[in-house]
Every structure is written in C-alpha cells, then in structure tokens.
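My convention is simple: the sequence line spells out the residues, with the fold written below as integer tokens. I include a record here:
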Amino acid sequence: MKPSPALLALAALGCHTTVHVDAQVLSFLQVSVMEELTGTEEAPNAFTDQPVSYRVKVEALDRNADPSPFRGTLSVKTQPGTLLSDDEITLVEGAWEGDVTLQYPFGPTRIWFTDDQGDGEARLPTFVSGTSDALWYELPTVAQVQAYDDHEKGPLLGEYTSVRCADRRVMVLAVGEDGMWVTDLDDPRGDYNSLYVYTYNKPEYSTPEGDIVDEELSFAEAGQRLASLGGGNQEYLATTQLAFPQYDFLEGDPLQVPDPILLEPDDVCSNEIMERLEGNLVRAEGVTIPEFDYGEGSDFYEYGQWPLAFETSDCTLYAETSVSVPEYAPSDHIGEHLDFIQGMLMEVWGKWILLPRDAADISSATRGRSSASAQVLGPARPRARSHRGQPRE
C-alpha cells in the first residue's frame, strides 16, 4: 500500500508519528511451580513410572512485564515425559492456578504453556510461550527404557531418551554392522538390562573430549564402557531400540563381556521371559535344525532366518547367520543336533531370533576345523545382519 499524501507531507516537514501500543496485551507468560520437591541438577528426584503432580501458577504479563488482564486458552505440554492432566487451560483476568500431572519425566523436565489457539476470528494467537523452571529427575536406566510390554504405547516411545550412564557400568555387549547392543551391569541380569542401539553404520569410537587415544581404534568394540548414550526411542519390528544416537565412551580397559544367559526350552514359549532377555547374549543348548522351507519366498530366502527345535518344547527359536557366519549353510545341516548355539536376541513381531556373532557361536560351525583354520578366524568380532525392511507380519 502506498503512503498517503498527508503522510508524505508530514515527512517533508520533518515531522514524525508515534504509534501507541496497548500495554495490556499478552507479551509474556510467567510460570511458577509452587512446590519444593522439584529436585536439583546435583540431587535429582528418582526416575519413576508413577504419576507426579505439581501445583502450577501461570500469569500473563504485558510488554512492561506488568500483570495483564488477558483472557484466553493456552496449550499445555511437557518435555520430556507424558502429560496426564488436561492439555489446555484458560486464563481468566490474566491468571490460572491448578495441578499439572506428569508421568515418566527424566533429566531436566519443563512444563510449557503456549498461546497458540486464539479465539476464532475475534483474536489471533500470539504464540507467546512460558515454561517452568527445570524439574530435575534422574535419567532412566537401560532396564527402565526397556521394561514395558505394549509395543505400540511404550511410555518413552517417540522421546529422545538419554540413558543413565554416568554412575553405572553401561557397556557394549556386541557390535553389528549397523549398530551395537549395550547392557547395564548394574541392572539385574536378564531383566530388561540390554538394549539395541541403531547407528545406521558400524558404530564409531568417540570420547567426550573427542581425543584419539588409539588411532587404530576407530570403531566401538565389545567391553567398552559408555560415558553417555541417548537417541530416539522406538520399537522396530517389536524390538526396542535407540535410533540415530549420540554416545561417547570412557577411556580405559574394557569390561569383561558376560557369559551368555542359558535359555530353558520353555522360555521360548513365554513372551514375558523373552521380552526380559531381549538384547542380551543368550545361549540355547541341545537343539536340532528341523526340516524347513528355504526356497524362494521363504523367511530363510528373504531374511536368512532358520528354525531351531528343542526336544522338550513345541516352541521354535530362530537363528540368522547370513552376515555374521556366511559360510554356514543351515540347509546343509537339516536334522543335525547342535550342542549349543548362542548370539544376540531380537524380536520380529513375536518371532524370537538369535544373531550369532561369529562361527564360534555355533557348535557345529567349528566341528572338524583344524587348529590352524581356527586361528584364521581370529578373535571374536561381533557382527549382525541388518534386519531393516522386514515387514510386519
């Protein structure tokens, strides 16, 4: 729009205009948590899966930071964590006070209030936001990230989740081609204490300082202890994982990799037991490779998965070796009894699959091998086939 002739005339005379802004509009939101138990960074509250409530006061302020008689509806959010109370509040005469209930808060958690709705055509949203001071909670342990049964409604799903590492022995259990398995040695073993971390490529080695301690150590290795770990919490094919993570390792000698957890034949029939073991190094003994379809279109043809049968159980465990032990052809061993087979445990929508790390994880894979040929294999280098792209059944 062109300026009017009158304004041009005033400008030519060297005059100026003053725009008066109503000081009683919403410019700031002041949020106060009226509780003492907010925790501190040095002494955070314990991580909990129980709902926690805070008495909160929200005040509207004008551009001079004075109270404003603003009336309107604000959206309520929490980050991180889950909001259990109403996701909207209404300010009357510029103020609101009430309870806000959260679940699964961790780290520095804040409650957000935003004027993002307006009032139809009568008032446009200002998008003014206000947040509480941090409510401090401990980070969840590996087990607390893992321990839930509903693959669709996990409490931390969709959150960027930081894992508690600083005061715990969280270590790499095995390394694959596109990720690593980590375990917390301070959690009860075999009780949700392990987790898969999807790194897209083979996970690289890094320290908090970014120093190169050993130029030959460019990738993560089993036994290395984590200084920090965080990533997008998601369920992939029913396996809990952290995706696109950030992590650093502590310098020093590696920790001892725990021995595999022995699977009892009936364990495979219980999703509850297997869920607790997911992401762990497990071992099955006294199994047989039964007859199975390995032709085009089969799970073996498409994904390299082949069955293992227990003598005393009708439930089937599966293995997948196409990347970690490519020389092993299970179709050539149908009917063979295996003294043991071990590897990393993952789930694909109710199907439990072992991912052996190398040939030494399959008893028959080394049978008849001379000591010289065994030396050619070298030390165990954990690997795992990428299971990206397998559809939901």
Observations:
- The mean pLDDT is 83.
- DSSP finds five helices and 22 strands in the chain.
